[in-house]
UniProtKB/TrEMBL annotation:
<feature type="transmembrane region" description="Helical">
    <location>
        <begin position="139"/>
        <end position="161"/>
    </location>
</feature>
<feature type="transmembrane region" description="Helical">
    <location>
        <begin position="80"/>
        <end position="99"/>
    </location>
</feature>
<dbReference type="InterPro" id="IPR000620">
    <property type="entry name" value="EamA_dom"/>
</dbReference>
<feature type="transmembrane region" description="Helical">
    <location>
        <begin position="111"/>
        <end position="133"/>
    </location>
</feature>
<keyword id="KW-0812">Transmembrane</keyword>
<comment type="similarity">
    <text>Belongs to the EamA transporter family.</text>
</comment>
<dbReference type="InterPro" id="IPR037185">
    <property type="entry name" value="EmrE-like"/>
</dbReference>
<feature type="domain" description="EamA">
    <location>
        <begin position="81"/>
        <end position="215"/>
    </location>
</feature>
<keyword id="KW-0472">Membrane</keyword>
<feature type="transmembrane region" description="Helical">
    <location>
        <begin position="54"/>
        <end position="74"/>
    </location>
</feature>
<feature type="transmembrane region" description="Helical">
    <location>
        <begin position="173"/>
        <end position="193"/>
    </location>
</feature>
<feature type="transmembrane region" description="Helical">
    <location>
        <begin position="199"/>
        <end position="215"/>
    </location>
</feature>
<dbReference type="InterPro" id="IPR050638">
    <property type="entry name" value="AA-Vitamin_Transporters"/>
</dbReference>
<feature type="domain" description="EamA">
    <location>
        <begin position="2"/>
        <end position="68"/>
    </location>
</feature>
<feature type="transmembrane region" description="Helical">
    <location>
        <begin position="20"/>
        <end position="42"/>
    </location>
</feature>
<protein>
    <recommendedName>
        <fullName>EamA domain-containing protein</fullName>
    </recommendedName>
</protein>
<keyword id="KW-1133">Transmembrane helix</keyword>
């Protein structure tokens, strides 16, 4: 879990975004539910995709592409960076499917499982990092605060919530959260960085929400049945 949900994808996305734009990394990240749906076909008999779920995933992905204006094309992109980002998105469903099969229903709390996972991922990265880089010469305040915020909220709290979602609705539906990452990133860019807002952002966001609602609708019917 620590390797597939933290150490591997975080490292791959970091290296990928050295050579590809963040918008493309967002699209690659948004393919995670699609990978998860495909893997669930063979790995989780209780999480078979219904027609509602398949349609919702497809609509949600179209929404992400709309937000990012994918029709404009991505010419001159680095193939290695793109492959690393796609591999990172593939690692997430592998980790969540393993959680559903091996740890769901465990007597341990979600908090203890999350804590253990993040500590193990930290240990893994601590062993590997010296092989690829050296210690920084100085530690600036703002980057340190950003790391603390991302670690405590974007990883710690988010991972704790995700554990509960996977146990309740399954890894495929729980990974719908990745569809909202590019939408939120675009909104933050407009509000904080003053980036321009085009028509595709609100329209794509509405499509993403519609896809998520359709997926949840199919899941709710299945649970009631």
């Amino acid at each position: 879990m620590a390797f597939f949900l933290n150490a591997l994808p975080f490292s791959l996305f970091a290296y990928a975004e050295l050579t590809i734009p963040s918008t493309l990394a967002g699209i690659c990240n948004a393919t995670s539910p699609l990978w998860g749906m495909a893997l669930s076909l063979v790995a989780l008999s209780e999480d078979r995709p219904t027609r509602h779920r398949v349609a919702g995933l497809g609509i949600g992905f179209l929404g992400v592409l709309t937000v990012l204006g994918a029709w404009q094309g991505f010419h001159g992109l680095d193939a290695t960076g793109t492959a690393l980002a796609l591999l990172a998105s593939l690692s997430y469903p592998i980790g969540w499917i393993y959680l559903r099969r091996a740890l769901a229903g465990s007597s341990y709390s979600n908090l203890s499982l999350t804590g253990a996972q993040l500590l193990l991922a930290t240990a893994q990265l601590a062993v590997v990092t010296p092989l690829f880089t050296t210690l920084p010469n100085r530690f600036a305040v703002l980057p340190l605060l950003a790391i603390v915020a991302l670690g405590a909220l974007g990883t710690g709290v988010a991972m704790l919530v995700q554990y509960g979602l996977v146990a309740e609705v399954g890894p495929t539906t729980a990974q719908m959260v990745t569809y909202f990452i590019p939408v939120i990133a675009t909104a933050a860019g407009v509000a904080i960085l003053g980036e321009s807002l085009t028509w595709s952002t609100p329209v794509g966001a509405a499509i993403v929400l519609a896809g998520a609602a359709l997926t949840q609708s199919g899941s709710s019917r299945k649970r009631r049945g």
